[in-house]
Amino acid sequence: MITKRFFISCLASSIVMFVLSYVWHGMVLTDFSRLSYSKHLFLFFAALVYLMIGFVVSKSIDFKILEKKFKRKPILRGAISGAICGVAFFLIATVVGVSFSTGSKLENMLLDVTWQTIEQMIGGVVVGLTHFFVFDPTAHFEE
């Protein structure tokens, strides 16, 4: 069910992760210079992808295993679920072959997985903060 808390956390985490990605790939690593098509088209599709990633990270915070272990710690739960999603997204991108990596050297892959994990972990923290600060009367908490 899409609640106010879910919608806000999904949108906020998507925006934060998109901005982090832009700063990392566009400013720090200058990966956008290697694009073979329009930067605007890339950014449009990247925004759509980050909305999907935000959706997954926002849904993953509610996994029963994480809820049991970290019931009263939504920020930690968000960080853990985001990190797990980051590793999963890295694996998917690697298998599909969608990456800015300049090769399949171990150092490049370690940098990529580390960045992806950190980026999605920060997105998960945003989801956790939203769960902590946004009141949602439709959400139920078990004591």
Describe this structure in words.
- The chain is an all-alpha fold and 143 residues long.
- It has one domain.
- The radius of gyration is 16 Å and the shape is globular.
- The protein is 73% helix and 0% strand.
- The two termini are 21 Å apart.
- The chain is built from 5 helices and no strands.
- The longest helix has 28 residues.
Topology:
Elements: H1 4-28, H2 39-60, H3 64-69, H4 74-96, H5 106-133
Helix pairs in contact: 1-2, 1-5, 2-4, 2-5, 4-5
Any key phrases for this structure?
143 residues
Strand content: under 5%
Structural class: mainly alpha
Order of helices and strands: HHHHH
Biggest sheet record: none
- The first-to-last residue Cα distance is 21 Å
The helical percent reads over 70%
Please tally the β strands and state the result. 0
- How many H/I helices? 5
Low-confidence stretches: none
Mean pLDDT: 87
Number of domains: 1
Rg over CA atoms, rounded to whole Å, is 16 Å
User: Overall 3D geometry?
Assistant: globular
